[in-house]
Amino acid sequence: MVHMDKGGTEEDEALALFETKEARFRGAYRLFASTIVVGICLIWVYRLSHLPRSAHDQGRWAWIGLFLADVCFSLYWIFTQSARCNVVYRYPFKDRLSHRYEEKLPGVDILVCTADPKMEPPTMVINTVLSAMSYNYPPEKLSVYLSDDGGSELTFYALLEASAFSKHWIPFCKKFRVEPMSPAAYFSKHSAASNSQHDLSINIGPEWLAVKKLYEEMKNRIDSIVETGMIPKKIRDQHKGFSEWNSNATKQDHQSIVQIMIDGRDKNAVDIDGGRLPMVVYMAREKRPQWPHNFKAGALNALLRVSAKISNAPFILNLDCDMYANDADAVREALCFFMDEGKGKEIAFVQHPQNYDNITKNDIYSTSSSVANKFELPGIGGYEAALYCGTVCFHRRESLCGKVCSKDYRGEWNSTEGEKKSDKTVNELEEASKVLANCSHEKDTQWGKKMGLIYGCPVEDIVTGLTIQCRGWKSLYYNPDKKAFLGVAPATLDTALIQQKRWSEGMFQIFFSKYCPFIYGRGKIKLGAQMGYCMYLLWAPISLPALYYVIVPPLCLLRGIPLFPQVYLSLPFYSYARDICILCLKCMSKKQVRVNRFRDICAIYASPLMPLRLT
Ligand SMILES: O=c1ccn([C@@H]2O[C@H](COP(=O)(O)OP(=O)(O)O[C@H]3O[C@H](CO)[C@@H](O)[C@H](O)[C@H]3O)[C@@H](O)[C@H]2O)c(=O)[nH]1
Ligand SMILES: [Mn+2]
């Protein structure tokens, strides 16, 4: 096969670059699930056979309603089982990759999005950028792009500072294998290390302190300038890029700006130890009030075009600005999947879980989504149709840009492709890239329809993943023990609710759009995967039967209308009762308020208010 021509012995080549293992106790779980199926059937039989016959019977409508709620719950439960019975875990072998391909590693473009310097402080954004620059990967093959939808010179200034600081930070990371590679996260985690008892400071004391000081000075400079909201003239004069901001540029109305902050092709762009630096590019796409900007999807599509012009790496890592890199080898691990000689060429993307480093002990809003991360998403990944979740995802550029996976696709790329094109000057590249980031560039093209991220849905990521899979590609879910990325989860009730509402509403829209997995995905992705998608897409409406179950039976109880069988027959109903009891106990207990069903509760309250904007 394509990449096997050189390097490695024959024996070595026979070994796959990753393996897949079924979750332990999968058989036992399936057995357990089948007992529930029996229970569900018994409930249906009971409901149908005991239906009050006479129309005058008081409880007739309550009974029918309860039967419909039971049907909804049963179907939804079956959807969840499609994923939960199919959990697999993936294990890449990064040593085999290095052994076989170290000299021929492909280029990787890292695309970071930010949208607002107030909501997403520039210091946080540059910490993400710095972490992405510090991967254990050949820097001449790495490019980091920042899309700034806020079009803010404050963010630009912060990136300028970060580019200078990276000359100290990157060699420091490599020398001492620093993780996490975000300076803010690293120094806050290891602040105890400045006490001399800790090994770290004994071994790397002076350098540690020097880098920490540099970081803090930089952070203070940025924070104080962000606070005033103005860039002093002295700093403006230091970089030509500031001239792009004229007095009438606003967040919603400005021309495209593309600035190459570090030219990774330049052999003289080196850190303090003389090591090469990765390419760093700032982009603010053109925004005009009369053009729809399509939010993050629009930003990523512009970034896809600009990065294709500048470095055109065959693989892409997509990060939100609040998700920093925690594992220096994550790029290599992801490449194991794409470069595996047997299965790699069909794989379009590899999704990591979204983990957070600000989860409180009790995680009262259940933002860590541990059931989804550990069972549901790996379960859908078991059908090789892992969901694309918008961030911490590695993509193959071709599949993201609309290519269809055909039988004769060989997954080839030029190993020089990762080497940045070197014939153009920085200025020429910037000017050519600006055109690609203009609003009018997408007019009458397939961008947002078949190419890049799909427009018109609040959860553009899920739809985009589905369309990629329906073009014949596979996708994997990879949840390593050592978390590869860490981010910031919503920490207050209102932000958590807004996020949950946007997700549930957006996903429900997909169900009624032409992208409904049962129709759009028919014959293209496995039935189990279609059901797995619908588990999420139907998450909002399943709150209605839940609401019914919460309200109607207690009312009937008060009025003496029987809805449930005598105790000896009620075993199948046990699980409802158990769930409701657990939920109540958890809500009441002050000590351990972990409401794992927080999402369900939100959905209950959000959905009756939810305007159904169907596309
Ligand atoms: O016009 C916009 C709006 C947002 N963003 C960026 O998009 C990312 C995600 O937006 P955010 O408001 O933080 O949404 P979340 O609810 O946190 O996002 C989750 O849900 C989204 C929709 O499913 C996914 O795209 C995200 O990756 C996922 O983290 C952030 O980096 C933003 O800077 C833009 O670049 N341009
Ligand atoms: Mn976010």
TrEMBL record:
Bilayer disposition of the protein: Multi-pass membrane protein
Biological processes, Gene Ontology terms: cell wall organization; cellulose biosynthetic process
Residues that, per the record, bind UDP-alpha-D-glucose: E120, D149
Active site per the UniProt annotation: D149, D461
Keyword Cell wall biogenesis/degradation appears in the UniProt entry: yes
Function in brief: Thought to be a Golgi-localized beta-glycan synthase that polymerize the backbones of noncellulosic polysaccharides (hemicelluloses) of plant cell wall.
Protein name: Cellulose synthase-like protein E6
